[in-house]
């Protein structure tokens, strides 16, 4: 190895260390002194799965903040109830029925929304499902549908609504992963795989946007990692540390998600302390880690 080549490698290594440490310090400062929440007043916010649960609660809260909310759900009846609740408060909401597992339906949705409402500034990919059984008892049909909804729908929605964000260099995409997208959980083998995929989609999208020769710094991404939300998906959960790993109500979860989005956090867990606990779990021995997170 020539001296010049060796010096170049050393300089590149030192420069990388400086940049990494700068980002670590910046992240620590953001944790201690959170950034001011940005306004969503006047923005068009599209949320999937607004017929019930977290999606419904987010729609209500975004509308209260002055956003125009586009409510998307396959269940037209429950979705209409959400929209009527918002409109009864003299706030702006629009209803669309869409099967987000079908790419053609999502593309058609994007065209309609742009013509009838306007350019979507905030996309919240919330729709999902969670079959809960030992892996050998889960059927091909439910696993296929789950992957279409939990994985494919995220990609179709991004492909449909990201182009306008790129044109404007303005937008925010929020994706619902799960604590099951950070660690394995029994009886949720296919679900864990789908939620790991959501994290991978968002991480990869961040790299794509960051490396784009155009300045796309105006497009932000936030990935959410909920533990147990009281939406009826998880029946009688067994929890070891109930104060730390509590069951969270949909309204509280919606508040945390919207706060994370408005402060432009890249990741957040629900409850929030769990994210830091899981990050530390890499240092645990496997059996010790399992003892902490899953009751026998």
From TrEMBL:
The keyword Ion transport does not apply. GO terms for molecular function: all-trans-retinol dehydrogenase (NADP+) activity. It is found in: Membrane. It holds the Pfam family adh_short. It is a multi-pass membrane protein. Keywords: Lipid metabolism, Membrane, NADP, Oxidoreductase, Transmembrane, Transmembrane helix. InterPro entries: NAD(P)-bd_dom_sf (IPR036291), Sc_DH/Rdtase_CS (IPR020904), SDR_fam (IPR002347). GO terms for cellular component: lipid droplet; membrane. PROSITE patterns: ADH_SHORT (PS00061). Belongs to the short-chain dehydrogenases/reductases (SDR) family. Catalyzes the reduction of all-trans-retinal to all-trans-retinol in the presence of NADPH. This is Short-chain dehydrogenase/reductase 3. It comes from Leptidea sinapis.
